[in-house]
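Assess this one:

_____
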Amino acid sequence: MKKSHLPTKVCKVCERPFTWRKKWEKVWEEVQYCSNRCRNNKNRQKNFS
């Protein structure tokens, strides 16, 4: 499958789009953050550029 055909979501912290990853296959519906950095900063104000 080509990357352009993979599902995408928008990160709740940085508001950037991110694509499906194989490691998220079974939990894709629960994924909310694009990275560990965003997950760790979920309670802080937006410090991203």
